[in-house]
Amino acid sequence: MTRETRGRYSEKHRGEKSVSLAFSTAIRAGLKEEGVPCAHAERVARELDVTLQEVGKAIDLMEIRINRCQLGLFGYRPERKIVEAAPEVPAELEQAIRAALDGGGLSCRKAWEIADRLKLPRMGVSAACEALDIKIRPCQLGAF
How much is the pLDDT for 74? Predict the structure, then answer.
């Protein structure tokens, strides 16, 4: 952790400072130089039988960056975001996305559910959202 990032992630969880040994151990097992990949955070949630939000909060409290978003939205170097707009969006996918909108955006959780239901890659759903000019928010890990 650098001086510039100290407190940067944990400040949104004021008053909470500790992370259990189980969380810390599981999270650090997937720690890379750039941070913890989203997919590893998902594995930790499954292994510990907790929500992605709880894992994201623990990662924040540990002052670790989350990277390699499974929707391609953040955490890639040097571009930061790697998802590109799909050249075309199948009608079934567009209908599923539009039906799941909340406040004009699509939640990360809903994007994952659509991908699972339609047997598509998660980044395929985010590429469709890019083409449809639909923002994906909020992140299940609390990154955005």
Answer: 95
